[in-house]
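Why do we care about 3D structure at all? Because function follows from shape, and shape follows, mostly, from sequence. That is the central idea of this module. The next example makes it concrete: a single protein chain, its amino acid sequence, and then its structure expressed as tokens.
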Amino acid sequence: MRKLVFLALVGVAMAISGCRGEPLVADNLDWLGDTPVLFWDDFSSQTGGWRTHEDRLSFSGYDQEGFRLTVDQPNFLIWSVPGLNFQDIDVHTKAEKLSGPDNNLYGLICRYQDKNNFYAFVISSDGYYGIYRKQAGSLSMMGSTKMGFSQVIRRGGDPNQITAICRGDQLALVVNDTKLLQVRDETFAYGDVGLIAGNLDRPGTNILFDYFIVVKP
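And the structure:
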């Protein structure tokens, strides 16, 4: 069976919010060309403002030359934000599953207001994807009633490049250079950015993010 409902995660979601930090500067990133880089972190040093956390159920922190999110409880979300504020941006990352179930969730956050209000752009290690809005603590899927499936998403432990586009009322999820979903929404116009991962019915999701880049489109 395939996951159809994501709302069960609402009551048990856990936020790990970041402290405001000084943005890192990338003088030249060849694959971005002349696109202005607003924030860049390859997680080689712990100066990006991300807050780390560890307990028996979750881990959020620098590890293996990246930033790792681990969730060891069913129906549970964990995320981290660096304490910044953006309006119209594209957010890029590359992530891979280190261990745990393929029936997982991981991706990006934009326009984060607080733990109860933000957009999430997620994929799973078994090929599914979706855009969610969390508003006043209630999580809802956007543009569909269930997560879509795409062969574009690399399965298992293979890495995926993920982009969240947040421009005006246009929100889009791009995976491995292919746009999978685009929706319109005016609920949040600005906010923080971040990383997110979670479990559905099986615990153990363990995701490593290789880099994090915010650019002005």
